[in-house]
Request: fold
Amino acid sequence: MFTTKHRDGRVIQSKVIGITVETVCKTCNHHWMSDLETRASPMLKPMLKGNTQGLSIEQQVLIAQWATKTAMALDQTFPADEQVFSIGECKQLM
Reply:
C-alpha cells in the first residue's frame, strides 16, 4: 500500500500511486516517457514484488533513467520554490 499525505491533512492509501502532473507536456508523456516506462516495466515488476535479479549495465542505466524521470515528475507536484530539479535538468534527461 502507498500512502499519500496531502497538504490539507487528507491521507489516502491505495495499491497504486495516483498522481497527476500538469507540467509534463502531452508529447513527452505519450512518447519518450511512455517508451521508458514500457522498456523498464519488465525489470521493475519482479523487483517491486521482492524478487532479486541481476541487471546488465544497459539495464542498470535504463532503471536509473526511469528512477530519475519518476523523481523529476514527482518533484513537479511540489511548489516551484520547493522543487529540487531545474527545468534544464529535466530537459537534459529528455
Q: What stands out?
A: The longest strand covers residues 2-5. The longest helix spans residues 57-75.
